[in-house]
Design goal:
alpha/beta, Rossmann fold, five-stranded mixed sheet, binds NADPH dihydro-nicotinamide-adenine-dinucleotide phosphate
Length: about 450
């Protein structure tokens, strides 16, 4: 609930203006609710209309993406790039290809990205983009033609010092390769305009693993500091089975945990003895198949065709790594009732507001995605540094920097939470710490920057 009059007015005006953008309003409300103590301490925020400026993207681009399928039929999708905030650096954030993409989803992701990038301590502003194109079931040539058409418009809006996209749901190395190739062709230059590139043309070792590994480094630091324990011998559930989920599961296992459940949008598998990640990788990364196929190798594992039920599996640590609003109030209550000690988000805004309320009202440790999944963009920042230096760091060097960044993010948000809240509310800690840096940069750059 928002109490401060100024903050309330900013939110109500936004609701009137963008009443149909529910994901965006959800993300803004969650942030604004926690900023009240800062706003009350600093009258400049209202005087300089910092919040009004922060909730409105600097630029919202949408465009037509026509493409031709293998049978010669013409299709048209919508492409987006939301350049949300460049106060602390060039816009930075991924591209998502999924049928659920619309302006609201892209704005929520761009808004969140601004705070997340600020938390990394690197000089990156916030942005996000994508399309309502569905890559599922498309041939490789169809994917290529779509990516080329998408970039034929997007190229004029991006650049290494302006806006540097990366992958997200439905956009991995293959798609980044096709888009980078088209950018290079049109712009006639080879620059670090994308991150998440393949190693052969400027990608960073460790970027593929970064979000999932970073999530576990953050979680380990959180449970060590606040509960005096580690991943060792813990039962973990990981929702999703894409890039973030697979590498979160891999690091959790390396740290001694047993991952007992994973999912895709069709359902989840439960394997009491611990999931064999090599089989998941083969299904998802090589065959691009469904998680249910795990049972072909392990018939004694169980499959449930409702992915939202995964939270009913008893566990010590839950890592939601699939998509927004995948964990609702019932899921949260089931986790608390089963004695789960920590929930750390790999996905962006996977917990509904009702679920967050359940977590904050219980003893569970709850880490919001903008802090705990920042390892992906942080390593993208490291990829940009390597591209600028024309150097490649070793996997160990990148991984060590990632671990350091994630541990620093935990320390920062925990200290901020102790200063402004009760030391327990890491959502407030993350939002305030992310906000303050951007806010100070906006103040000194003047109103019409
Ligand atoms: P991928 O496309 O690689 O994987 C997404 C996974 O989530 C797939 O397994 C997909 O299954 C599954 N999924 C989608 N919807 C649901 C659902 N309702 N229930 C269960 N599973 C579902 O995406 P990423 O792993 O890259 O991204 C996952 C999340 O992490 C997103 O929220 C993204 O914004 C966030 N993130 C990603 C970063 C990155 O570096 N990639 C960085 C920071 C955050 P299916 O195949 O059936 O669709």
């Amino acid at each position: 609930m928002i109490n401060n009059n100024y903050v309330k007015k900013v939110y109500e005006d936004l609701c009137c203006k963008y009443s149909h953008e529910k994901e965006f309003l959800q993300a803004v409300q969650e942030v604004l609710e926690t900023l009240e103590p800062v706003v009350e301490k600093d009258p400049q925020i209202e005087k300089l209309a910092i919040l009004e400026r922060m909730v409105e993207p600097e630029r919202m681009i949408s465009f037509r993406v026509p493409w031709v399928d293998d049978n010669g039929n013409v299709h048209v999708n919508t492409g987006y790039r939301c350049q949300f905030n460049s106060a602390i650096g060039p816009y930075k954030g991924g591209l998502r290809f999924h049928p659920s993409v619309n302006q609201s989803v892209i704005k929520f992701l761009g808004f969140e990205q601004t705070f997340k990038n600020s938390l990394t301590g690197l000089a990156m502003g916030g942005g996000k983009g994508g399309s309502d194109f569905d890559p599922k079931g498309k041939s490789d040539m169809e994917i290529m033609r779509f990516c080329q058409s998408f970039m034929t418009e997007l190229y004029r809006h991006i650049g290494q010092f302006l806006d540097v996209p990366a992958g997200d749901i439905g956009v991995g190395k293959r798609e980044v390769g096709y888009m980078f190739g088209q950018y290079k062709r049109i712009a006639n230059e080879f620059t670090g305009v994308f991150t998440g590139k393949a190693l052969e043309f400027g990608g960073s070792l460790g970027r593929t693993e970064a979000t999932g590994y970073g999530l576990c480094y953050f979680t380990e630091k959180m449970i060590e500091t606040l509960r005096g324990t580690t991943f060792d011998d813990k039962k973990v559930i990981v929702s999703g089975s894409g890039n973030v989920a697979i590498y979160a599961a891999q690091k959790a296992i390396q740290l001694g945990a047993k991952v007992v459940a994973m999912s895709d949008s069709s359902g989840y598998i439960y394997h009491k003895n611990g999931i064999d990640l090599a089989v998941i990788k083969e299904i998802k990364e090589v065959r691009r198949g469904r998680i249910k196929e795990y049972l072909e190798t392990y018939p004694n594992a169980e499959y449930c065709d409702n992915c939202r039920e995964i939270w009913t599996v008893p566990c010590d640590i839950a890592l939601p790594c699939a998509t927004q609003n995948e964990l609702d109030e019932n899921g949260a209550k089931a986790l608390v009732a089963n004695g789960c000690i920590a929930v750390a988000e790999g996905a962006n805004m996977p917990s509904t507001p009702e679920a967050v309320e359940v977590f904050l009202g219980s003893d569970i440790l709850y880490a919001p995605g903008k802090a705990s999944n920042a390892g992906g963009v942080a390593t993208s920042g490291l990829e940009m540094s390597q591209n600028s230096l024309r150097l490649s760091w070793t996997f160990e060097e990148v991984d060590a920097r990632l671990k350091d960044i994630m541990e620093n993010i935990f320390d920062t948000i925990y200290e901020t939470s102790k200063k402004y809240a009760d030391g327990k509310n890491l959502v407030a800690g993350a939002n305030i710490a992310g906000f303050v840096k951007v806010c100070e940069a906006m103040k000194v750059q003047g109103i019409a920057y």
